[in-house]
C-alpha cells in the first residue's frame, strides 16, 4: 500500500483496477477466453472520453456480479482505503461554479448558484482519478447510517468507523499468505516512551504537530526556524528519513499560510491601502476561511479517532500520506495566493488589479478560476469608480486608486486641459488605452458641461442609464465579455456625451462661427476689409509708434467694418474684434506695432487658448507685413505710371527710370509668388483640412487637436518656426529692401519735381520771376549732377536685393519641404539666379534622392 500511495492518481487507478478485476483473477480459474475478453473490454473502456469515473463503473459492475452471501473480499479493503475522502462540506468549487454532481438532489446547496472559492480540498475537477467512495457504501451500511454520516460534516472523515463496523472488519486482505508475526512486529513503529531516547516518534504525534503547523503554530517537534524561514524538525529527534521528508513537505503548507496571513494582517488595518487593496485582503481572507474549514474537519477527525481509540496506522486513522493527498489542492491554491502576495507588494489601485489579472493567463483551469475569483473582488471598487465617473461625472478617489486623476487647484478656464488626467500606472491591464481615454473624456465632458457651459441637464438625460456593479459576481460576468458588454457601455456613454457637448458648443456658443471669424480677420481672409483698413490706417501708421493712440485706431477699425462686407457679421463676433499695439522698440513706426486682436472667453476659450491666440498673433504680423509689401509695391507702380510721362522730357533720367522699372518688376514678381504660396498653398489647404476634421470630430479633444495641427502647420510653412529662422531672416531682409527702394524712388521724384510753382500760383503771384528762373536753372543743373550718384545707389540697391534673393533661393532648395522647393522654381522661373549660382542648378529629383540616401 505504501507503494500505491506514492503513485499519481492515474497510475493508482490503473493499478487498482488490475488488482481488483485484472486478468490474474480470471487466469487462476483457468478462464483464458474470459481474460482475453476482459482485456479487450477494459481497453475500450479506457479509450472512452465520455466516462470520467471509470473506476466507479468497474466497481459497480464488480459489486453487481459478486454473490452477496459470500464474505467481504479484499475489494472491500481496497475500497475502504481509497474511501478516505474529505466530507462533502470540505469539497468546494471555484467561485460562481456549480457544486459537484455527486450531491444528492435534495441537498439545499445543490440549487444554489454561488459556491465557495474552493481552497479546502482537492475537488473533483483537480484530480484525474475517480470519485472516492465511502466505505459505508462498500460495507453495506444501512441507508439511515449513510444519511446520518452525510449530515454530520465533522465526522465524514471517519466513514469507515460507522456504527456496526470495526477497524478489523474493514482491514484489507493480503494478496499473498499472511506475514510472519516477527516480520509484522518489525514493520510497526516502536512508540516512544518517557525516558526512552532511542524510540522513534509515533506518526500520530507528527500528525498532530502538522495540524498545528498548518495554522502557523509551532508544534512539539516541528518548529519555525527563523534564520532559515522554514519549519524544521530538530535533528536530535529520532525519526526515520521518510517521515522526516513527509513532515517537511507538509510543513510547507503552514509556511504558505503564514505568508498570506502576515500580508493580510499587515494590510487590513492600513487605510491608505485603499478600497482595491482592502478588497484584495478580503479575497485572501475568504480563501483562508475555506482553508480553516478544512483544518477544522481534520481536527474533528483526529479528535474522533482519539475518542474511539483508533489504532495508529489503521485504515481509518489520519496519516501523513493521507494528509499529503488531501492537502495537495489547498497547497496549490495557497502557493498561487503566496505568489500573488509577493507580486502585489507595494502596489495599489489599478496597478494591483493589473498584477492579479496577469496571473489569470494560465492553462490550469483551477488556478485560472481562483485568480478570476480574486480579480472579481479586487476590480469591484474600480468598476464602481468607473461607472460613477461616466454616468455622474463624480470622482471620489480618496486614496488615488482610479486611473483618472483630478487636480483641485486648477481653475475653471483650464478644466478641460489640466484638471483631469490619466494615471497610466493605474490603468488595469484588462482595460485598453483607448477605453481609458474614452472613460476620461466622458467624465470630463460631464464636468465641463456643468462647470464651464453652465448646462443644468441631468447626466441621466445625456447618457443612457445603466446598472452599476452591485456585487463581485457582476464584475466577474463583465470580465467574461470585456470586448462586448463592457465596450458597448463605454462606447454608448462616450458617443452620447460627446455629441451633446459639441451640439452645445456649436449651437449655444457658436464655435464654428468664431473659427471662421479667426480665418477672416486674423488670417486676412476678408480681403475688402483688410484693403480698406490699410488705406485708412496709412497716415496713422506712418507716424512713429510712440505717437499712436489705441482709441484712434479703434475708431478707424470701426469705420472699416461699417464700410465693407464685415458689417454683415454677427454682433457677437464684431464686438470681439479689437486693436492691439505691440511693445514699442526705438525707431519703430506704427506699421511695426499694429495688430488686430480677437477676444475669447467662456467655453470657446477651451479651443482658442492663450497659446493658440499667440500663434494667431504671430501669423497675423507676418501676413500683415507681407500685405504691406504688396501695398508698397502698388504705390511704387502707381508712382512710376504717373511720373513716366512728366519726366519723358528729361532724357538724362531715362536710364535711372528704366533701372527703377526693372527692379520694381522683380520685387512685384517675388511678392506675388510669396502671396500665392502663403494664401493658397498654406492657408487655404490647411483650412480645408481643419474644416473637414472639425466636421467629422466625435469629441472636443479631436476638435482641439485638429485646431492645434492647423496652427502648427501654418506656423511651420509660413517660416515662423525655429527650423526656418534663417529663411525668415532673409525674407525680412528682402522686405526691408523693398521699403528702402520705395524711399529711394520717392526721393528721386521729389528732386525731379518742384512744387514751388504751384505754391506761388496758389498765392495769386506769377509763377516765375527772373530771379526765380535763374535759381531754377541752378537747381536743375545741380540735379543733373546728382543723377550719376542716384544711378550708383540704385545699382547698389539692386545688387544687394538680388544677393539676398539668391541666398533665399538657396535656402529654399535645401529645405526638406517640397512645397518650398517648388516655390524656389516659381521665384526663379526664368533661371536668372540659377545661371549666377551653381548651387541652384541641382534638380529637384537629385535633391530628393540625396535626402533619401541620407535617411
Automatic annotation (TrEMBL):
Coiled-coil stretches:
none
**Occurrences of domain Gamma tubulin complex component protein N-terminal (ranges):** 207-508
Chain intervals for the UniProt region annotation (Disordered): 106-126, 160-198
Q: What are the boundaries of the signal sequence?
A: none
Q: Where in the cell is it found?
A: Cytoplasm, Cytoskeleton, Microtubule organizing center, Centrosome
Q: Which GO terms describe its cellular component?
A: centrosome; gamma-tubulin complex; microtubule; spindle pole
Q: Which GO BP terms apply?
A: cytoplasmic microtubule organization; meiotic cell cycle; microtubule nucleation; mitotic cell cycle; spindle assembly
* Bias-annotated ranges (Low complexity): 111-126
> Which part of the chain is the Gamma tubulin complex component C-terminal domain?
511-833
- Keywords from the named record: Cytoplasm, Cytoskeleton, Microtubule
Q: Which GO terms describe its molecular function?
A: gamma-tubulin binding; microtubule minus-end binding
List where Polar residues composition bias occurs. 163-173
Q: Which domain of life is it from?
A: Eukaryota
Q: Please report which protein family the annotation says this sequence is part of.
A: Belongs to the TUBGCP family.
The record's listing under PANTHER family reads: GAMMA TUBULIN COMPLEX PROTEIN, GAMMA-TUBULIN COMPLEX COMPONENT 3
Which protein are we looking at? Tubulin gamma complex component 3
Amino acid at each position: 500500500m505504501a507503494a500505491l500511495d506514492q503513485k499519481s492518481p492515474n497510475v493508482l487507478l490503473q493499478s487498482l483496477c488490475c488488482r481488483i478485476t485484472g486478468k490474474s483473477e480470471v487466469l487462476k480459474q483457468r478462464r483464458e477466453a474470459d481474460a482475453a475478453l476482459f482485456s479487450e473490454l477494459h481497453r475500450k473502456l479506457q479509450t472512452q472520453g465520455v466516462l470520467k469515473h471509470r473506476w466507479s463503473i468497474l466497481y459497480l459492475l464488480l459489486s453487481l456480479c459478486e454473490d452477496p452471501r459470500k464474505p467481504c473480499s479484499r475489494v472491500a479493503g481496497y475500497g475502504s482505503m481509497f474511501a478516505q475522502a474529505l466530507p462533502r462540506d470540505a469539497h468546494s468549487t471555484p467561485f460562481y461554479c456549480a457544486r459537484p454532481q455527486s450531491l444528492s438532489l435534495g441537498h439545499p446547496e445543490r440549487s444554489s448558484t454561488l459556491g465557495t472559492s474552493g481552497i479546502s480540498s482537492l475537488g473533483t475537477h483537480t484530480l484525474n482519478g475517480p470519485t472516492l467512495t465511502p466505505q459505508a457504501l462498500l460495507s453495506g451500511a444501512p441507508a439511515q447510517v449513510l444519511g446520518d454520516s452525510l449530515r454530520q460534516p465533522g465526522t465524514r472523515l471517519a466513514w469507515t468507523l460507522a456504527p456496526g463496523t470495526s477497524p478489523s472488519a474493514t482491514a484489507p486482505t493480503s494478496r499473498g499468505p499472511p506475514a510472519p508475526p516477527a516480520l509484522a512486529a518489525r514493520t510497526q513503529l516502536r512508540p516512544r516512551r518517557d525516558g526512552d531516547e532511542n524510540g522513534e516518534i509515533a506518526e500520530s504525534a507528527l500528525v498532530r504537530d502538522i495540524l498545528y503547523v498548518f495554522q502557523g503554530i509551532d508544534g512539539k517537534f516541528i518548529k519555525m526556524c527563523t534564520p532559515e524561514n522554514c519549519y524544521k524538525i530538530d535533528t536530535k529527534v529520532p525519526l526515520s528519513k521518510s517521515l522526516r521528508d513527509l513532515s517537511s513537505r507538509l510543513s510547507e503548507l503552514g509556511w504558505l499560510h503564514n505568508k498570506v496571513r502576515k500580508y493580510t494582517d499587515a494590510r487590513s488595518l492600513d487605510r491608505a491601502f485603499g478600497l482595491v487593496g482592502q478588497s484584495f485582503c478580503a479575497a485572501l481572507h475568504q480563501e483562508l476561511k475555506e482553508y480553516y474549514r478544512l483544518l477544522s474537519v481534520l481536527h474533528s477527525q483526529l479528535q474522533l479517532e482519539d475518542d474511539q481509540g483508533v489504532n495508529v496506522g489503521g485504515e481509518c486513522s489520519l496519516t501523513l500520506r493521507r494528509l499529503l493527498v488531501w492537502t495537495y489542492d489547498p497547497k496549490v491554491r495557497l502557493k498561487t495566493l503566496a505568489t500573488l502576495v509577493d507580486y502585489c507588494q507595494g502596489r495599489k489601485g489599478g496597478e494591483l488589479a493589473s498584477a492579479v489579472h496577469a496571473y489569470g493567463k494560465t492553462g490550469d483551469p483551477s488556478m485560472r478560476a481562483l485568480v478570476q475569483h480574486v480579480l472579481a473582488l479586487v476590480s469591484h471598487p474600480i468598476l464602481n469608480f468607473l461607472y460613477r465617473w461616466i454616468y455622474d461625472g463624480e470622482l471620489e478617489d480618496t486614496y488615488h486608486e482610479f486611473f483618472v486623476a483630478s487636480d483641485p487647484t486648477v481653475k475653471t478656464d483650464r478644466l478641460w486641459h489640466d484638471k483631469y488626467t490619466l494615471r497610466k500606472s493605474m490603468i488595469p491591464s484588462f482595460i485598453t488605452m483607448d477605453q481609458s481615454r474614452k472613460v476620461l473624456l466622458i467624465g470630463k465632458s460631464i464636468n465641463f458641461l456643468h462647470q464651464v457651459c453652465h448646462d443644468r441637464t441631468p447626466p441621466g438625460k445625456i447618457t443612457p442609464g445603466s446598472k452599476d456593479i452591485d456585487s463581485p459576481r457582476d464584475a466577474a460576468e463583465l470580465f467574461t465579455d470585456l470586448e462586448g458588454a463592457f465596450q458597448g457601455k463605454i462606447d454608448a456613454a462616450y458617443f452620447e456625451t460627446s455629441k451633446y457637448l459639441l451640439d452645445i458648443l456649436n449651437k449655444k456658443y457658436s464655435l464654428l462661427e468664431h473659427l471662421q471669424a479667426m480665418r477672416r480677420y486674423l488670417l486676412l481672409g476678408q480681403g475688402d476689409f483688410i484693403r480698406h483698413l490699410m488705406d485708412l490706417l496709412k497716415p496713422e501708421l506712418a507716424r512713429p509708434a510712440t505717437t499712436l493712440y489705441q482709441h484712434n485706431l479703434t475708431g478707424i477699425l470701426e469705420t472699416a467694418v461699417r464700410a465693407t462686407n464685415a458689417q454683415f457679421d454677427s454682433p457677437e463676433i464684431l464686438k470681439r474684434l479689437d486693436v492691439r499695439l505691440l511693445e514699442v522698440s526705438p525707431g519703430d513706426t506704427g506699421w511695426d506695432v499694429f495688430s488686430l486682436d480677437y477676444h475669447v472667453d467662456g467655453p470657446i476659450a477651451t479651443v482658442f487658448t492663450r497659446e493658440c491666440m499667440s500663434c494667431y498673433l504671430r501669423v497675423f504680423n507676418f501676413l500683415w507685413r507681407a500685405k504691406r509689401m504688396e501695398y508698397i509695391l502698388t504705390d511704387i507702380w502707381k508712382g512710376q505710371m504717373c511720373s513716366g510721362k512728366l519726366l519723358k522730357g528729361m532724357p538724362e533720367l531715362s536710364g535711372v527710370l528704366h533701372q527703377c522699372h526693372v527692379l520694381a518688376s522683380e520685387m512685384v514678381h517675388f511678392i506675388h509668388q510669396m502671396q500665392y504660396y502663403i494664401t493658397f498653398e498654406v492657408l487655404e489647404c490647411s483650412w480645408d483640412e481643419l474644416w473637414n476634421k472639425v466636421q467629422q470630430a466625435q469629441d472636443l479633444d479631436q476638435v482641439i487637436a485638429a485646431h492645434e495641427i492647423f496652427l502648427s502647420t501654418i506656423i511651420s510653412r509660413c517660416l515662423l518656426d525655429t527650423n526656418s529662422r534663417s529663411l525668415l531672416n532673409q525674407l525680412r531682409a528682402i522686405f526691408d529692401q523693398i521699403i528702402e527702394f520705395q524711399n529711394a524712388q520717392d526721393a528721386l521724384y521729389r528732386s525731379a519735381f518742384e512744387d514751388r510753382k504751384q505754391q506761388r500760383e496758389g498765392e495769386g503771384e506769377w509763377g516765375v520771376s527772373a530771379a526765380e528762373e535763374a535759381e531754377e536753372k541752378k537747381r536743375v543743373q545741380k540735379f543733373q549732377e546728382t543723377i550719376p550718384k542716384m544711378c550708383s545707389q540704385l545699382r547698389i540697391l539692386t545688387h544687394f536685393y538680388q544677393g539676398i534673393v539668391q541666398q533665399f533661393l538657396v535656402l529654399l532648395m535645401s529645405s526638406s519641404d517640397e512645397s518650398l522647393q517648388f516655390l524656389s522654381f516659381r521665384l526663379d522661373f526664368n533661371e536668372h539666379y540659377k545661371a549666377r549660382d551653381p548651387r541652384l542648378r541641382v534638380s529637384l529629383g537629385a535633391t530628393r534622392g540625396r535626402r533619401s540616401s541620407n535617411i
